[in-house]
Fold this protein.
Amino acid sequence: MASGARVLMDSAEPAYAPRGQDDAAWVRSVVAAVRPALDAGEGVLGWLYDARDTPHVMGSPV
């Protein structure tokens, strides 16, 4: 498997890790895990979406 694909596969671990942290910290850990495979020099972004009130979905960068 190519190294980029391996990094993406490895990123599943923090995505499904026990959530002993707040949502923003969790997203940051997932973004940090996928950065080596996805960052082509422009950075990688992570967003949280609150879709509990679907007519008014809110997003916020972390």
Summary: Residues 23-38 form the longest helix (16 residues). The chain has a mean pLDDT of 79. The chain has one domain: 3-61.
